Amino acid sequence: LSFEGSNPRHSHEWTVFRDIKIPEEKILIPGVIDSTTNFVEHPELVSERICRFADIVGRNRVIAGSDCGFSTFAGFGTVDADITYAKLSSMAKGAEIASKKLW
Tens digit of pLDDT for each residue in 54-71? Predict the structure, then answer.
């Protein structure tokens, strides 16, 4: 189940997952970086977002993702390529931090 989880419109919605039972065969792929802004998330924030979901469904059932693609809206809110790679790097570093905390 892939979904937006980091942009200001959806970042609070992670709490919904505390109140519902996710089938055991489902894996969550929350967006932990926002693909619509030029702000680069800190790896610790990315780690925090990953750990939130891991605490709810278990560490084996969470894969970090981005809110959406970085070229979803042609000509609208384009994120510079260098920023995109910085965001992806932050996601990788955040996942590494989360892995150390969770494993």
Answer: 999 999 999 999 998 776
CA-based radius of gyration for the chain: 14
Tally Cβ neighbours within 10 Å of residue 5: 26
User: Which sequence spans correspond to the domains of the chain?
Assistant: 2-102
* Residue 75 DSSP symbol: T
- pTM of this prediction exceeds 0.85: yes
Q: How many CA atoms lie within 13 A of 99 on its CB side?
A: 8
Task: Encode 28-51: b = buried (16+ Cβ within 10 Å), e = exposed.
Answer: bbbbbbbbbbeebbebeebbbbbb
Residue type present at position 93: K
Q: pLDDT tens, 73-94? A: 555 667 888 999 999 999 999 9
Write down the residue that tokens 């977002």 correspond to: 49
